[in-house]
Design goal:
215 residues, mainly alpha, 3-stranded antiparallel β-sheet, two-stranded antiparallel sheet, 5 strands, elongated
């Protein structure tokens, strides 16, 4: 018996044919989310370290509200049959930066598409599941073509904006600088920095800072 047809952009909570309720990007009956798997656990936009990184990840995931991630996942497996990891990597490439959706977000989304009859999951080599779009999934994708195009355009603009704000050349140079400084400061005993070396490095940093300000 064919599954009833559903649109992705309607209803914040959909019910699968098996009667399990799902949030926009939550999993069907998979239990509570782990911390950091989805929006709503942010620590604010300020500061550095893990909290700031989690906030940025949550901000990116909010781009997929109202079923956008389901639509994007269907689009990706519609291009070619894929494993879950392939979908994670492809979404990360579309968003840009160092973002990758968590497995706890992607795999329930793929399971949802299977439940809805929009995809099939078959065992492949290594026991991994390979997801393939169905005829019903292709029909759903065609009906949501405009919404998909808007989503892809928004992702492309966001990726371009981030590339301008964080040029990869500068990101690479900063990481090289941090690594060199970390290695220098990690010495102990005979390899520890001398007072002369510390003064020299501090002077170099001050000089570079001034040059950057004037660049």
């Amino acid at each position: 018996m064919p599954h009833p047809h559903h649109h992705f952009h309607h209803h914040p909570h959909l019910c699968s044919p098996r009667g399990r309720h799902m949030g926009d990007e939550g999993g069907p009956g998979r239990g509570p989310r782990h911390h950091g798997d989805g929006p709503g656990h942010g620590h604010g936009p300020h500061g550095h370290g893990p909290d700031a990184a989690r906030h940025l990840a949550h901000k990116r995931e909010r781009m997929f509200e109202a079923g956008g991630l389901k639509l994007l996942a269907l689009h990706l497996i519609g291009q070619q049959p894929s494993h879950g990891y392939d979908v994670i990597r492809a979404v990360g490439e579309l968003v840009g930066g160092d973002y990758q959706p968590s497995p706890g977000t992607i795999y329930p989304t793929l399971s949802y598409l299977v439940d809805m009859g929009h995809a099939t999951a078959s065992e492949s080599e290594g026991g991994r599941k390979r997801y393939t779009i169905t005829a019903e999934g292709e029909q759903a994708l065609a009906e949501q073509a405009d919404a998909l195009q808007l989503l892809l355009t928004r992702l492309a603009r966001g990726k371009d904006r981030e590339a301008r704000q964080r040029p990869p050349q500068l990101v690479r140079a900063i990481e090289n600088f941090k690594m060199a400084l970390r290695l220098k400061m990690a010495g102990d005993g005979e390899t520890a920095l001398s007072a002369e070396q510390i003064d020299k490095i501090a002077a170099l940093l001050d000089e570079v800072a001034l040059k950057i300000e004037k660049a």
